[in-house]
Amino acid sequence: MASLARLRVSRQLPLRGVRAIQTSADTTQLQGTAPGDGQQPFTVKLHPDSFRAYKCDLPDLEVEVNKDQLLTMYRQMQLVRRMEMAADALYKAKLIRGFCHLAIGQEAVSVGLEHGIVPNDRVITAYRCHPFAVLRGGTVAGVIGELLGRQSGMSNGKGGSMHIFTPSFFGGNGIVGAQVPVGAGVAFAQKYLGEKHATFALYGDGASNQGQVFEAYNMAKLWNLPTIFVCENNKYGMGTSAERSSSNTEYFTRGDTIPGLQVNGMDIIASLQAVRYARKWAVEEQKGPLLLEFVTYRYGGHSMSDPGTTYRTREEVQRMRSTQDPIRGLQRYIEEWGLATEQELKLLDKEAKAEVDAAVEEAKASPEPEIKDLWTDIYYKGTEPPSMRGREREEVSVVFHSSGC
Q: What are the DSSP calls for 352-371, one per residue?
């Protein structure tokens, strides 16, 4: 056992001469001065250790942003965090049942991703999906309604936390790792149809050892698909640290012949730049798939049933909250660069809270699905068969015809 312990410790040591990624949320520096015009771009420079590359060049550390974009990102980060906090409270009040996985602490990944892609790009992820659903065209009310199992939900109250979709967001998927080959398939369709878009297929460090993930890598590279494989490495999977579950914890190097990029997933500007780089790689330069690893951190447990303190200390979580929070990092940028005052940002916070509070009340007021709704949304609209069966032919025939479907 002692030798095994030594092996585990040795795996955690960085390779000699290789600098580790840094995960501070506020090390980006303003170059020159920030203009007062909201749309006028200006340049900031990322920390030199914001990226590590595998078989590809590093992204440029100088990033072009503007005031309106940064303020929008700040409000969106506050909005999705408030939404997840509301979901936490509703779950504890037993108004949300079943599985519920929250992304508090990982907002720089979802919001940074959204600002680095275009509307017709595709995104697919696992079950920590609520922020992506809102950012990809959904609403907070639609997400909360779905969590509560109400008709106002984005899946009409029948999908729950793990099954939420929009035309450009393919879920919300409950099977660990299964969304990765589906994402490769979506990218195959994009290439087949001649679309100039990419698919971002997200998964966690806990799913990274799934065989289907590596099968998807192979097919995407073989066919040169515009697939960006995105590992959200929040370090603990379902409750096991990466060092205890994976022989190679440098997930961005796992694509074999697919190049990879490790990214500081706590700094939203680093996340934004990485996604811009990846999209250019796959769409404009047509270089095929790329693997992104966002090194991030979740404040809560794997799901609401996991306290999140049996495999890490409360002190560790508190340290991350107080020193590396992605929202506080962006707030510091905005204030120090003279883009908005603390009071102006508090108004945005207040607006986000009010929107979430209103969404909760709207969702609570919505009715639950009716019995007849069991027979809808089984097939794509317009492709339904003339009849459907359930457990018994007679039961289904009666219910189906009486529903008027």
A: HHHHHHHHHHHHHHSPPPPG
Locate the domains of the chain by residue range.
28-369, 374-402
Q: Which of 134, 121, 115, 120 is nearest to 69 (CA)?
A: 115
- Across 78-111, b (16+ Cβ under 10 Å) vs e yields bbbbbbbebbbebbeeebbeeebbbbbbbbbbbb
Cβ neighbours of residue 84 closer than 8 Å, sequence gap 6 or more: 102, 103, 104, 130, 131
Name residues whose C-beta falls within 8 Å of residue 171's C-beta, 6 or more positions apart in sequence. Answer: 124, 125, 129, 162, 163, 164, 165, 179
Indicate the burial class of 384 (C-beta count within 10 angstroms; 0-12, 13-18, 19 or more): middle
Domain 28-369: assigned CATH number: 3.40.50.970
Strand partners, 166: 169
Measured distance CA(76)–CA(54) in Å, rounded: 31
Residue 42's nearest CA partner among 388, 334, 318, 328 is 334
Q: What dihedral angle (degrees, nearest 10) is formed by the CA atoms of 92, 162, 69, 271?
A: 100
Question: What are the respective helix, strand and coil percentages of the chain, to the nearest 5?
Answer: 45, 10, 45
Do 355 and 138 form a contact (C-beta atoms < 8 A)?
no
Over residues 283-340, the pLDDT tens digits come to: 999 999 999 999 999 999 999 999 899 999 999 999 999 999 999 999 999 999 999 9
